[in-house]
Amino acid sequence: MxxxxxxxxxxxxxxxxxxxxxxxxxxxxxxVAAYAAxxxxxxxxxxxxxxMTDAGRYPDEVEAGLSAAQMQRRFADYVATARQLQQHxxxxxxxxxxxxxxFYAGVIPWIRRLRREYALDYIVGSVHHVHECCFDFxxxxxxxxxxxxGGYAELYCAYFDAQFAMLHHLQPAxxxxxxxxxxxxxxxxxxxxxxxxxxxxERNLAFIAANGLLLDFNTRALFKGAAEPYLSAPLLRxxxxxxxxxxxxxDSHGVDSVAAGIDSAIAILKDNGYHCQWRTPCDSNVTPAxxxx
Length: 293
What we know:
It is built from 11 helices and 9 strands. By secondary structure, the chain is α/β, with parallel strands linked by helices.
């Protein structure tokens, strides 16, 4: 993909590293250096939040025997390391120290505490669970979530309902991979068009528009071989029609995926008439229509 030289490279959702995440690779310093070498103007480091309790661990963390307490200490190390890198690259590349949140029962006060305690620059609001079942770690996990919900329509509705609750309670600066629920669904174009799903998508996008939140145009799907990023094309067009601001995110999990798909994403946005003048997650030029919680 030829680079659009007139449009700066940025990533609002990037920088997972093997140093602080079991399903990623490489040290955070190596990943940041790769962004700098690739000419990024600014990046957001968005390591996963640590779980409140052992019940919130991912399968690989359970298998590795990591406790919630250990991951909480690791998260503190992440923030300290990221702040050092932020200072080191000042003047060359802007680095935001952020966090990718989860959304499951009881997590809201924990996310607020982490955001406050570590003075995070922003959070990415993501949903990886439906009815307390993690759906995106593997195809088997997705199948379990599908079975739990009782069908694709129910699965998609449960996801977008959880996303709406997350949006309402947290109002994250960046909404992560909006339609992630299509991850292991080859028939997702049809399922996204189901009337009950469409109603929820419209509701969620309207909330994002009214509150001036940024949508993550997430290229991780391209890196994994999918045909299009998150958002899928019809959702992207609707978001643009509603005046929602988007920003690329490579959701990198190692040096090999730094900048992966970013130029393709920029080309898609440009082809759809988007201005590609990126608003940073720390900018706010919209007065929220809904009170923050």
